[in-house]
Amino acid sequence: MISTDFLLALLNDMFFASIPAVGFALVFNVPPKALKYCAIGGALGHGCRFALMHWGLSIEWATLCAATLVGMIGVHWSHRFLAHPKVFTVAAMIPMVPGVFAFKAMIALVEINHRGFTPELWGLLVENMLKAVFIVASLAIGLAMPGLLFYRRRPVV
């Protein structure tokens, strides 16, 4: 059974994920009529990742699933509104960019440079850097997944 606390946390996560999606859509000169779809895509993607992580999936796999969902929805919207899928998907992916992990990796690197090498700092650097790299790779693969599945000239099998 889904609790009320989980639903409120999910709605909170989705609302606050839609804000940077719209902000980056404005930066990327997305047409004004498509801004609400960028917000919905960002909210759905981040909400999907939040729910999957709540149910025990790692952040890397949850990001891959959420990015694939956003990519599929973006392809649907692109057919419906006769626009390129990237209009809807790129800005919607921005809230899932792993800024915290990249920041922690860079801080560990600066600490190693400042204080010297320690196994703890090295472990922190490698762990956060690998998380950031795998999350970015998940976003790229998820964003490319609809194109790989739907726009192939040859069959998948």
SSE diagram, text form:
Blueprint: H1 4-27, H2 35-54, H3 59-81, H4 85-93, H5 99-115, H6 119-150
Helix pairs in contact: 1-2, 1-4, 2-3, 2-4, 3-4, 3-6, 5-6
Pfam families: ThrE_2
Transmembrane segments: 6-27, 58-75, 87-109, 129-151
Subcellular location: Cell membrane
Rounded mean pLDDT score: 93
Number of extended strands: 0
Q: How much helix, percentage-wise, in residues?
A: over 70%
Distance N to C terminus: 39 Å
Gyration radius (Cα, Å) is 18 Å
Number of helices: 6
User: Element order, helices and strands?
Assistant: HHHHHH
What is the approximate shape? globular
β-strand percent reads: under 5%
Structural class: mainly alpha
Task: Report low-confidence residues grouped into runs of 5 or more.
Answer: none
Largest sheet: none
Q: Provide the domain count.
A: 1
Family: Belongs to the ThrE exporter (TC 2.A.79) family.
Domain Threonine/Serine exporter ThrE: 13-147
GO cellular component, one term: plasma membrane
InterPro entries: ThrE_2 (IPR024528), ThrE_Dicarb/AminoAcid_Exp (IPR050539)
In short:
By secondary structure, the chain is mainly α. The chain is built from six helices and no strands.
